[in-house]
Each structure stands twice: as structure tokens, then as C-alpha cells.
Amino acid sequence: MFNKDRWKEILEVLTSNWFRTVLTAFGVFWGIFILIVLLSAGKGLENGIMKDFGDIATNTMFMWSRATTKAHKGLPKGRSFLFKTEDVSSIKEQVPNLRFISPRNQLGGFGDANNVVRGLRTGAYNVYGDYPEIIKQDPMSITQGRFLNYSDIEEKRKIAVIGDGVKTGLYDKDEDVLGTYIKIQGVNFMVVGVYKKKSNGGDGEEGQKQIFVPFTSFSQAFNRGNDVGWMAITAKDGTSITSIKNQIMDVVKENHKVHPEDQRAVGHFDLYEQFNRVQSLFGALRFVAYFVGILVLLSGVIGVSNIMLIVVKERTKEIGIRRALGEDPWSIKIQILIESIFLTIISGMAGISFGALVIYLINTLLDMNGPVDMFANPSVSLGVVIAALLILIVSGLLAGFIPAQSAIKIKPIEALRTE
Amino acid sequence: MIEINNLHKSYKMGSNSLHVLKGLNFSIKEGELVAIMGSSGSGKSTLLNILGMLDEADSGEYTLDGVPIKNLNETKAAKYRNKFLGFIFQSFNLINYKSAMENVALPLYYQKVPRKQREEKAIKYLSQVGLKEWAHHLPNELSGGQKQRVAIARAMAAEPKVLLADEPTGALDSKTSYEVMDLIQNINDQGNTILVVTHEEDIAHMCKRIVHLKDGVIVEDKTVDQVRASQYV
Q: How many domains does chain B have?
């Protein structure tokens, strides 16, 4: 298959009519180009949206309490209730496969009045009472000092970890932050750490303006008793939070004498479900890309097949002569097939390269003009390129098959008769 | 060398059937130079095609060098053609985009002879037909006579048992015709068996034996005194 004469001949045949060869190759070139560009555009969209999810543990749900909507066990509907710290331990006991359960409390929020004071400066920040695990559910990097730990929880230390945005708001540029005190709603907390979150989309700014204090200190300082504002619950890898969230909610409903059928008493946000929904959207996009790309490629392949048929027709006499001289029909068949595969692969490679070039240019443009919403770093993986090559080989084979078959159907005697 | 027994061949033309060969019998021994003569439609080309395994007889036996030729699939036929037969055509049938040498080397390529050997052999046969200097020219740079000589070199390259020539001089003027016939006679003198289909009397008389076909039967089969073509050249 790989002898020099065969390749020489293939090149002779393909170059004997340059213009036609190039026109034919263009069909395949365009098909694979479209496929690559569509796939990479899909990937770019995916990258952009994934960036918005940031590093958040996606197998997570958030849960909070609301007013009941059904009367139960002699209690009226419309009753408000709050989660308690006991709920956390009963969830831990009754629901398996949970990785983290973080009860949280919160002060402040968007649009609230200033609640944090340091010297002459004040600011409005979100203040959270948290357990140390929260850093694994809502990842952040500690740039100075440390994050919360269990000693802080046990000893109810009044310490705080502040965001980069808080630091710029309350401190001078070169001021030492660690060991200083800030006053949160009249209570002094010592700053022991500074964190920085990876910016995620539009919330990037807001994410840096948070203050984390130990859950127990928070409850004591702000008179929350054993109330829990809301919970962030992450399931173990391999178990989706979506599949066990009803179990979790049943536990808290039972604890708070809420009717088991009451769908609205416990509010929740299932990040995993959202994440999956987005994931399946990307799946659909990929499907569309392959579908369109392969159809365009198919029309190119049909073009190749057509031209190969014409080439065979043109070479009828030559094939007859070769047969008379004793060439094996298989050898002729293989020759035609290789010609067709060669043409498809070369033009396909050109398409892939051109597609890669376009992707590269788009990337450079994106880099130059800063990030664009919901679109980042369009790219195709090596796997896609290999898949495209496989598609090309298969389509080259298909394109060559009919012409090759018609070539060996030529009887030498008939071929020699044509003048 | 060639043995033919009661060979029949007919072609279907729509609803009619055209009986072209009506029971031919003859044999050719090694080293013979036989002319097959006949007007057009006498079946001489059909006979040559059957002898050349390009076509198959309806019935009858055909033995070539002791090998019965029947029920060949295409692969086998190609192999036999390559091993046993050399073809010389009226229209030369050289491959246009290959040089004279490559054309001559083609049958050897199908025998999977290594390139180097192939080229040496091709040059050897080209010099035998006096075209060594033209080895790297394309067919369209050669005259008709030269083309036919390249074709003869090609036919001989695989060292076949039998050379089959279908009107080898049909497309040539008489001077080059005689040159080509001289070449064919020389090859025959070296002991090669050659079959020439022709309708020209003078060409036929340059062979050693003439088989006359008419309407699908042999009407005459005679040995003749060979006229040497060299005296005209």
C-alpha cells in the first residue's frame, strides 16, 4: 500500500487536473471547517458559562425555611419557623452520603445600610456566620493569615476573615490588616485573614465584599440562639444532591412539624440540577454542531465520489490496458480508494488547520478586547480532531467505494474497444 | 503451446444471437509465428480476445502451455495474462502519462519485481527495440512506429509464453509496418511464439503460417515461405 510507485501515480492523477481537484477538495475542506468552528464555538460558550459557575462545588443545594402552607398536627398554616442547629445533627444522622452540611447565618445584604465600622470608615458588607467547611463549598483563596477553624467555633472566638474588597474599603493601601479590629454592628471582631475569590461573572465584585466569622460567635454576638438561617449541603461524589434532597427536606419537616406534603415550607436551590440543565444544553449544542458539520461534510464527500467516478470514466481505457497487462483487480480498487481517501484527508487536514487558525484569531481578539460575557476561549480538544480525522477516513472510503467498484467492473475488452 | 478444441462463441445482440466462432480447432507449437487472417466480422478479433483471456468462450477447450484455461475469476485471469501473454495492440495502448521506460516496466510492476530490477529490464528491452535513448520520453513525444516498438518491448518485458498482436501494423504506414514486422520476426527468431491478427496479405506472408478465418470457421491453414521484412527496410 505504501510503495513509491502507487503514491507517484496518485499524485499524477490528482495533479493532472488541478482546478478540478481543488474544487472537489473544497467541499470536504468546508465541511470539516464548519464542523470544527461550530464545535469550538459551542465549547467557547460552555467555557464562558462554566466560568460563571466558578469553582463552586456543583453537587450542592441551599435550603432555607419559609412559611408553612398546610395545617399539620394542630398547627395552623402560614406559620413561620426557623431551622435549628439540632436539624444539622439530625440530617447528619439520618441521611447518608453527605459530604458537608454547613449551617449559615447572615447579616446585611444587597442594599442594606452600613453595618461595619473601622475607625472613621464604614461599609455595608455581607457578614456570615460559618463553619470551616464552607471554604470547600464556596472556594476562596486565603491571601493573608488564615481561615476559620474548629477551635474558633468551639471557643466562640470573635475573629473575622474579610474579603479583598472589604480590605480596600476599610483600610489604607499598605496598612497591615491582620490583628486589627473591625466593629460589626457594634461588636468587635479581630481580623485574622484575608481571602480572594475567583471572579465569577457579574457577582465578582460582590464576592470580594464578604466577612466570615465563626458560626458560634455569630450566634452569640447577634443573639441568634441556636437558629440557623440557611444551609449549604454538599453530597459525596457519586451521589447527586438532587437524588437525596427530598430525604433531607423530609428530616427538617419532621423536626418542625411541617406537613410532609407541604412543598413550599422549605425553600431550596439545587445547584446540581441547574448545572446539569446547562450541561445538557451543551450536549444539545454539540449534537447540532456534529449534525450540521457532518451534513455539510457529506455533501463534500458526495462531490469527491462524483469526481472519482468521472476520473474512473476518463481512465477506462487505461484501466483496461492495465488489466490486459495483468494488474490484479484488487490493486485497481485499492488505487481508487487510496486516491479518494488521500484527497479527503488532505482537504480535511487543510480544513482542520484553517479552522484552528480561525479559532486562534478569535482567541487573540478576545484576549485583546478583554473578556466577553458567556464566551471564553473557544477550542477543540484533541479528541475532536481525532474524531474528525476518523470521520474523514471513513467518508473517504465511502466516497471511493462506488467509483472503485465501477472501476473493477470495467472489462478489459470493453475498455480497449473505446477509442 | 496453444491448443484449441471445438471453440464456440456467440454474442447476444438484443433478441438475436450472433454466432461468431463456430467450432474452431487448431494448435500452435512453441516458436511458431502464425498469422490469423480474415475480413472484418470473420471472428479473428474474438478469437484473439479468447486466446488473450480477455473474453471467455461459450464452449470448447483452450489449453495454454498445458494449463487448461476455464472458469477463471478476474484475479486469476489477470495473473495468467501477466505470466503467459504479451499484448500488442493496433492503437499501441501506451499509458500517456508514463514514460516509455515506465510503460515497459508496468507488467513487471504487477509481478512485484523490485524497482531497480524493473528499470534495468525495461532499459534492456527498450534497447532491444532500438529505443534506449527514448526511455524517458512520454508516448506523445514518439512517432507511431516508435510507440509500437515501445508496446512490443512492454509485451516482451514479462517474458511471456505467447505474444498476441492485434493488427500491430494497422495504424502505421508501410515503411514503419515493415520495421515493426522485422522486429517481430527477430523476436520470433529468438524462439518466441507469436500470433498476429491481420487483414493485410503482405504482413501475413511475413509469418510462417497463415490461418484463414471466414464466418467463424477456419477455411484454410497453411504454412508459407516467410518473407523477411528486413529486405524492405
A: 1
